[in-house]
Amino acid sequence: xxQTNNPLPRQVADAYVDDLVALDPVTGxxxxxxxxxxxxxxxxxxxxxxxxxxARDTLAKLDEAERRPGADSDIERRCAxxxxxxxxxxxxxxxxxxxxRAVGNMSTPAHHVREVFTVTPSRTDxxxxxxxxxxxxxxxxxxGYRESLTLGLERKLxxxxxxxxxxxxxxxxWSDPDGEGRGWFEGFVAAGPEARRAELxxxxxxxxxxxxxxxxxxxxVYTPAAEGAPNTVGRERYARWARYYNxxxxxxxxxxxxGWAEYHRLLGEMKKxxxxxxxxxxxxxxxxxxxxxxxxxxxxxDEVRDWLQGLMDRAIESLDGTHFELAERVxxxxxxxxxxxxxxxxxxTGPSEDFSRPGRTWLPTMGETRFPVYDLVSxxxxxxxxxxxxxxxxxxxxxxxxxxxxxSVGIVSANAEGWALYAERLMxxxxxxxxxxxxxxxxxxxMMRAVRVIxxxxxxxxxxxxxxxxxxxxxxxxxxxxQEFFGGHxxxxxxxxxxxxxxxxxxxxxxxxxxxxxxxxxxGRERARERHGDAxxxxxxxxxxxxxxxxxxxxxxxxxxxx
Length: 563
Hints:
With 563 residues, this protein is mainly α. 62% of the residues lie in helices and 3% in strands. The chain has a 3-stranded mixed β-sheet with strand order 2-4-3. This is DUF885 domain-containing protein.
């Protein structure tokens, strides 16, 4: 979209993306901007303030754009609302100095630095030259991150001790994941061309040395300084983060009550399915433990990657033309194994803007080589098809009709995670979860999202456990009680439960968006169905819903109901 001297909101939004990519080449790489491949962001306080200054300047330009003729059209209005909401939420987090204590087991600057290499182009000699330059930028990027954490210490803004300890362990693993005396970066460049071997190896060793230096500082300086800091954030900080991840000012007490209502509903359904698998099972999780030993499994890491690819391919063949209309480039998605040292949860990375890099799902194996099927099917409907991949790839496909901002960096977590959880439920509604194993696995995944609402809000706000709870009624939540409750209501192994609770302590307010986002998607569909009556067409609604770009939960239900 060409820029003019009198830009409308979509043009303001797209100019923001251009300026953001200049400051944040990690974002540029995920978008597929070739010039970003050799650089890393400035994670120092100066770099953080530069991003905030860009947000403030863009909001001022948006004020002017919204007064121009044509700014009140639906497409301009949706873009303007998203841009204003997102930048305001981001500034709220920045101005509270949250970036000065960004420590955890995922989504820190150090995680971004490492993970961006997994999506950096690596096909040509020129690509590897850029990778070498990016590797040489790792020490400065991590030094800037450490500078921000140091300022946080000076201001007595501490990260939670538990996520800090986990992060130190992760950095240790990145330094030597195979126990062979070489770091993750050295392993990554092993696939590079021999003509650049010396250059790549030297740059990789420098990157690993920077990881070790950060690890040692966190262990020896940061951890003792932050000792005794609370693991939870309290209501004020939690509300700020909940707005950032959900795009709305939530009634947190109502959301907490909703989590409990879903817990009771799902528990009843799980008991019925468990009886089909292990009659007389004491709990549904006893039946799931039985499946761990006696249910269907995939043996081998390569084999599970291929099996997941087949699952997504079959879903595309079944859904395209019946419940969705998919462009050819949206039909391509790849199954990958996550690099060692990742958090325990599977994840998805979207395609580049030109689809030269396809969307990819990532499975952390956590050292396992045997994988229960019940734990995979609905999860890959969530991560892949019809979940994250169909939504985010469709956004990229229709970016020219929206704005680049709406189709990429303007994403609201609860919108995307809500759609992915809706996608799991849709596959159940459409009859894809045909046997008790798969359906109990799906309900277990749904229960995990309901439990997330309960424990994430409950422990950060130190709420009381209801009197009708089967678990410690009347007591107030602590992280220890949250982990016990989560572990008792999940089929996941102990290391997964540990990783999840650390995640909730690291990024408060994000995990609740799955269930609350799903609720918004279901309500929007119900209102659209009521509006159209017998003329309601689910396939048309799906494609219209997936083609409007991201929205916060403030706007999502209303916009979905109009379709």
